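Can you give me the bound-state structure? Components:
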Amino acid sequence: MRLAVIGAGAVGRSVVELAGEHGHEVVAVADSSTAVVADGGSDAVGVDPDAVVARKAERGIVGDDDPEDALAADYDVLVEATPTTLGDAEPGFSHVTRALERDRHAVLANKGPVAERYGDLRAAVADSDGAIRFEATVGGAIPAVSTVEDIEPGHVTAVRGVLNGTANFILTRMAAEGLDYDHVLAEAQDLGVAEADPSFDVDGTDAALKCVILANVLSFGAADDPTEAREFTLDDADVAGIRDVPGSALRLAAEDGQTVRLIGEATGETVRVAPRLVPENGTLAVSGTQNIVQIETSHAGRLNISGRGAGGPETASAVLGDVGRLE
Amino acid sequence: MSDRRDGTPEAALDEADEDPGTAPDGGHAAATPSTHTVRLELVDEPGQLLAALHPIADNGGNLLSIYHERGNKTPRGRIPVEVDFEATPERFEGIVDALRSEGVNVMQAGTERYAEEVTLLLFGHLIDTDLSDTLSRIEACESASVADVSLAAPQGTEEVSSARLRLEARAGETDAALAAVRDLAAEKELRVVEPLTGVEA
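Here's the bound-state model for the whole set.
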């Protein structure tokens, strides 16, 4: 497959680097202000991944072309890896719909369009010969969406889990070391586990977006007529974060053999993210930046998949897995 | 609780095809009647006690004892009554439903084995918002009673403190109990960390 990678952050760069290993060719890469597009031609070769990554690292640009050129390039799959935006989910949403209008596929690592405008996306897919996939938007390397699809959304009653590594790291450290939130947050920021502004992670927004996406998959997947399916957005989620969880609460939990984890839950009807009490040695009490997705099924019991929920190569693996499913 | 097992023959027959091994919550494993205690609150009017006992007898409960605390009224002026009876699990559910549908105020129903236990955390300004009021209001909720409380206030009583509460809820009413705690916490600007109920890890 020929890929146009839009977005040159950690995920976009990893997709560029790993595409060759998966048998794909990158024909265009764009960041927010520049692009590089491979020369067309019958025996066209893609862009040089190492050169793109090096240029981005050294000069902060990916090439001398305009981002528009990358969107117009001759690709099979557009990889949308720009930062997640809420509300109208732009510019990611338009990048995807422009690919669909050209009957090309799109693979998203950007949560915005699938969380905030799922209905619009489905409508655009219905009018296109192209398809969308978005495994990378939920749980990084964990195959959450495709597992739900394999079981079939109508046979999945709920999906829950730990879907934010930053919040999980903080809760794990607080419980293990008896430290308070502020101390552990500073530590996480030094380690690069938390961002300078950690709100998106510690307030539960990121986990909520992932659950909203899963709720959309369940709702649209189970509906007889997808145009009648209930659409979820972040506004439909009941969200509480971990910012004010005191160390004393974690100590009380530990005395009782339990601990606190930021748990997200999605059904076809509800989305909820909140710190919850879980058994200290239970399946859901994953440590550090690990994530876990637990899928509750009607006929197949409960499935647990844990792994790395973030990171460039991890998330890129999910993107490239999606590309493979589109072949 | 007594451990008498003189169930009626009908009761034994009813349960002949019950599989005692399939009771993950311990709620429906018994093939013999067991003793239950129900705490009722009665309005102080003639005939109320009799009216409350009828649904028990009529639904297959074997009355064992009645403890009628006439001298000890609740803040609302009602009279607390504790009734012990034997019944099979199915009949027990029916009895409690019948009591409620007769308008009898059932404050607490169940034996250890029937109660669902749920542990949760509360944090925030627990002391400033009157912890004992918080607890007694949870107690007053029909679905649950507070079995155990642990408090941690490492920075003194004026700062944020945490409490771990163990609640005993009537079978099937854990969600209602949690909802009541959630409402109370919202009113007092406290935060609740709920357990993942219905999920064995």
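A couple of observations. The first strand of chain A starts at residue 2 and ends at 6. Residues 123 and 227 of chain A are 8 Å apart (CA to CA).
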